[in-house]
Write a structure and sequence with these properties.
It is built from twelve helices and 13 strands. Helices cover 46% and strands 18% of the residues. The longest helix is centred in the C-terminal third of the chain and has 35 residues. It has two domains: 183 residues, 3-Layer(aba) Sandwich (D-Maltodextrin-Binding Protein, domain 2); 146 residues, D-Maltodextrin-Binding Protein, domain 2. The strands form three sheets. A six-stranded mixed beta sheet has the order 9-8-10-7-11-13. The protein has a five-stranded mixed beta sheet with strand order 4-3-5-12-6, with helices on both faces.
Length: 352
């Protein structure tokens, strides 16, 4: 059956032949709930073994443990119920109870979280600093008020990747200027602006489609973490990477619709959030470990590492500042709170 898209409030809902099966599954869930056990459906786009998927399983196990077996999760990873860009649609339409939201995929509705993805904004020391800052701001701070609440969704727990690096697929990276004119995959408006400031061409490609695009030469490089290269099996394609860069990040998290949230018992809401705090810490610690291991593997494979010289780093710091300022000014001119978003996230990072 051909797919068609209809608009229902916040997100577009992609209809397809499996919707009947989803509706029948919903009837089964209602029956299970009537028998006294709450069943929550969780969906995301991450493949098995991915560090986010593993941490989602950790979170669900923690919630089940805290509630003493009175709750059950049905988990659908790896785009089983929809593409990465459609995950919020599943949540908004009620097909699932909890789903991943990556704000950069719906930036027209959630523009402010891009402030957390700007270059130089998170600490290169540990992804936990940025992750905890974003998680708290998206649950009860600036991003909660301006990105999530207006769209009727509530963040339960969030994540932020380690600082992204430049990964080139064919050309050897000997200096930052080598990216000039190259097509580089990015995520979010902040990274778009950075690539333009570096005189490169930003390209938006969903992560699940990245390997095919990279293999076909649609892009010359990627803004990505070392661990992400392995998670999406891109290691056979990457030839050269930066080391020690802070080219921005990607943020997201697991959210529930506000209406569904209000239907949940108080003890369930408490468990979802408390276990979420543990999951955020579990995931960021895992990301830091994975990044170290992935770097070792890239070295063993003979991938070339390029560390910016002191002069290059000084120039990069200038460009990062320009990118942040340009993004905030662009948002302000559109009547958005760009400067406030940057200020709020910087304060959150400093408070960790």
């Amino acid at each position: 059956m051909p797919q068609r898209t209809v608009v229902d409030g916040f997100f577009s809902i992609r209809r397809c032949g499996r919707c009947l099966g989803l509706a029948l599954a919903g009837i089964w869930i209602g029956s299970a709930q009537a028998q006294g056990k709450l069943v929550l459906r969780v969906s995301d786009q991450f493949p098995p073994g991915h560090f986010v998927s593993d941490s989602a399983r950790f979170w669900m196990a923690e919630v089940e443990k805290q509630l003493g077996g009175n709750i059950k999760f049905e988990y659908y990873p790896n785009e089983q119920l929809g593409k990465a860009r459609d995950q919020p649609s599943l949540l908004q339409s009620g097909v699932v109870d909890i789903s991943v939201i990556v704000p950069s995929y719906v930036s027209d509705k959630m523009p402010y979280s891009a402030a957390a993805e700007l270059p130089g904004m998170i600490s290169p020391k540990s992804s936990c600093i940025g992750a905890l800052a974003y998680s708290r701001q998206s649950r009860e701070g600036f991003f909660a008020k301006n990105d999530y609440e207006p769209n009727g969704v509530r963040m339960l727990w969030a994540f932020a990747y380690p600082p992204y690096q430049i990964n080139l697929l064919k050309k050897r990276l000997t200096a930052i200027k080598d990216v000039e004119g190259l097509k580089v995959r990015v995520i979010g408006s902040g990274m778009d602006q950075l690539l333009r400031d570096l005189k490169a061409v930003p390209v938006r490609i969903p992560l699940p489609d990245l390997f095919e695009s990279a293999s076909r030469g649609t892009v010359d490089g990627l803004m990505f973490t070392y661990a992400g290269v392995y998670a999406y099996k891109l290691d056979s394609l990457v030839k050269s990477v930066t080391k020690g860069g802070n080219f921005g990040t990607a943020v997201g998290g697991y959210a529930v619709g506000e209406k569904r949230w209000k239907e949940l018992p108080a003890d369930v809401r408490k468990a979802l959030v408390e276990a979420g705090e543990r999951a955020t810490r579990h995931l960021c610690a895992r990301m830091d470990r994975d990044e170290i291991e992935a770097e070792k593997k890239l070295i063993a494979q003979g991938v070339t590492f390029m560390t910016p010289s002191a002069a290059e780093q000084q120039e990069l710091d200038r460009i990062f500042g320009t990118t942040v300022s340009e993004w905030a000014t662009m948002m302000d001119k559109r009547g958005k709170l760009g400067t406030d978003a940057v200020r709020a996230f910087k304060a959150a990072v400093a408070g960790q």
